[in-house]
Design brief:
Layout lengths: L1 E7 L7 E9 L2 E7 H7 L4 E3 L3 E5 L1 E6 L16 H12 L4 H17 L2 E8 L13 E8 L8 H12 L4 E6 L7 H13 L3 E6 L3 H9 L3 H8 L12 H11 L12 E5 L5 H9 L5 E4 L1 H7 L6 H6 L3 E4 L12 H11 L5 H6 L3 H6 L17 E5 L6 H7 L6 E3 L5
Parallel strand pairs: 1-4, 1-5, 6-7, 7-8, 8-9, 9-10, 10-11, 11-12, 12-13
Antiparallel strand pairs: 1-2, 2-3, 5-14, 14-15
The structure holds zinc ion.
The site of zinc ion (ZN) has 5 residues, from loops.
C-alpha cells in the first residue's frame, strides 16, 4: 500500500512535499516523493490529500489508571495534600473501575494520535485482562513504604502479571514511597534481563525539603504513616538516587545508564548540577508540562539538562493532574514556556527522543524503511512551516495507523 500526503515529516530531515510512504504488512518499506514511490512500489494508493503525515506520537509518562479522575481533584495547597486527595479518590475505586478507566484512557490517547505509550500501572495484576490498541510499555508501579521487608515479593508478583505483556518495565514509585532495597532489586533485574526502569524523582519542593532538611509536609506525612526517616536530612533527592543507583552497580554494564527514564527533575540544586556534570551518566528524562503547571512546581531546568546532553521527552502524566491526554497540548504548553527551542525539536520530544528512551530508536519515532508502520495525519494549511503547524495543532485527527492497521 502507498500512502500519499501533501507533506511528509519523516523526522529525518526536511519535510517532503507531495510525499508518500510505502507499507508492507506492518512495516514501512519506502519513503520519498510520491512520483518516485509510485515507480518503485506496487500497491493501492491511499491519498490523504492536503494533510501532513508524520510518525505516531509517543507518550513517555502516563498513568491510565487514573483517567476516571479527570476534574476530580482541584489544585491543592501542597503536593502532600494532593497525595491525600488522590488516596481518598482511589479508596472509592474497584478493579472494574480501573479496567474501565484504562480502556477509556487508551481510546483517548489514540484519538490524539499517540501510537506508543509508557504507562505506569499500580495494578499489574489487571494487565492480563487488557488489550492495548496501541504499542504499550507497561511499567509496574512499585510501593513498599509500609512493608520494605516484602520488596522482593512485591516485585516478583508484578513480574508474574506482566509476563503476558509484550513490553514491560519496573517503576519504583519514588524515593519517598519505595525502599532502597526495592530500587536495588529492580536495577539488578534490569541488568540481567532487558527490562526498562522508570521512577518519579525531584518532583516537588516538599520532596526536596524531606530529603534535604528532614522537615515539611511530605516529611511529616511519610513519618506518620510509618516510613523509616533515617535517610532524610542530608541529601538532595537526585544525590540520594545516584547513590542508590551506583551502590547496586557491581554488575554495571555499559548500557545500564540509559535503562532509567526519570520523570520530573523539577527540583535540582546547583550542587546537583555539579554532580551531573561530573557523572558520565546520561539517563532519559521526561517532563510533563501541564501537570507541572497544575502543581505549580519550580521551573523545569530544560536548557541546563539539555546542554548536559540529557535525552528529554514529554509525557502527559495522569488525569489526576491534567485535563486530557493530548501530546499536542503538551507540546503547545512546552513551547509557551521555552522559547529557545525549534518546533522540530519539540516534535522530537514526542517521537525520536522517547523512542530512544524505550530503546526503540530503530523501530519507532521516524518514518524510515524497516520501521513500524505507526503513522498519523494532521490537517495543516499550505505554506507555513509544517513543524510549527503540527506543534500548534489542536490534535484532532481522523486518520491513524498502528502497526500497519488503519
Ligand atoms: Zn507520574
Amino acid at each position: 500500500m502507498i500512502i500519499r500526503a501533501r507533506t511528509v515529516l519523516t523526522m529525518d530531515g526536511a519535510p517532503i512535499v507531495n510525499g508518500a510512504v510505502a507499507i508492507s504488512e506492518n512495516q514501512i518499506v519506502d519513503v520519498g516523493k510520491f512520483d518516485e514511490i509510485k515507480t518503485r512500489n506496487a500497491g493501492k494508493v491511499f491519498d490523504l490529500g492536503e494533510q501532513t503525515l508524520l510518525p505516531g506520537l509517543i507518550n513517555a509518562h502516563c498513568h491510565l489508571d487514573y483517567t476516571c479522575l479527570r476534574g476530580k481533584i482541584p489544585p491543592q495547597e501542597t503536593f502532600t495534600d494532593w497525595i491525600r486527595a488522590i488516596n481518598a479518590e482511589k479508596a472509592r475505586l474497584s478493579p472494574k473501575d480501573y479496567l474501565a478507566s484504562i480502556n477509556e484512557g487508551f481510546a483517548e490517547v489514540r484519538r490524539f494520535g499517540t501510537t506508543t505509550i509508557a504507562n505506569l500501572t499500580a495494578f499489574p495484576d489487571l494487565v492480563p485482562q487488557l488489550t492495548s490498541p496501541i504499542r504499550t510499555w507497561w511499567f509496574a508501579e512499585l510501593i513498599d513504604v509500609r512493608t520494605p521487608e516484602r520488596a522482593k515479593e512485591i516485585i516478583d508478583l508484578a513480574i508474574e502479571s506482566l509476563k503476558s505483556a509484550q513490553n514491560w518495565g519496573l517503576a519504583p514509585h519514588a524515593l519517598f514511597t519505595a525502599s532502597k532495597g526495592l530500587y536495588h532489586r529492580c536495577q539488578e533485574i534490569a541488568q540481567r534481563a532487558n527490562v526498562l526502569l522508570t521512577t518519579h524523582l525531584a518532583e516537588s519542593h516538599e520532596e526536596m525539603e524531606m530529603f534535604h532538611d528532614a522537615s515539611g509536609p511530605l516529611y511529616e506525612f511519610m513519618k506518620n504513616i510509618g516510613r523509616p526517616m533515617d535517610d532524610c536530612g542530608s541529601t538532595t533527592p537526585l544525590e540520594y538516587f545516584l547513590k542508590i543507583r551506583d551502590s547496586s552497580n557491581a554488575l554495571r554494564s555499559a548500557r545500564n545508564d540509559n535503562d532509567w527514564l526519570i520523570a520530573h527533575l523539577n527540583e535540582l540544586t546547583d550542587s546537583d548540577f555539579k554532580l551531573l556534570e561530573r557523572s558520565k551518566s546520561r539517563f532519559n528524562v521526561v517532563h510533563s508540562p501541564r501537570s507541572h503547571d497544575y502543581f505549580n512546581h519550580s521551573q523545569f531546568p530544560f536548557e541546563r539538562l539539555r546542554s548536559l546532553g540529557f535525552n528529554i521527552c514529554l509525557g502527559t502524566d495522569s488525569l489526576a493532574s491534567n485535563e486530557n491526554l493530548s501530546l499536542f497540548a503538551e507540546m503547545r504548553a512546552f513551547q509557551r514556556r521555552e522559547h529557545g527551542i525549534s518546533a522540530e525539536d519539540i516534535l522530537k520530544m514526542v517521537t525520536v527522543n522517547p523512542a530512544m528512551a524505550l530503546h526503540q530508536e530503530n523501530t519507532i519515532g521516524r518514518i524510515r524503511p524497516g520501521f513500524c508502520a505507526d503513522l498519523i495525519a494532521v490537517q495543516c494549511s499550505k505554506g507555513d512551516n509544517p513543524f510549527e503547524q503540527i506543534v500548534g495543532s489542536d490534535g484532532s485527527m481522523d486518520w491513524i495507523m498502528v502497526n500497519g492497521k488503519m
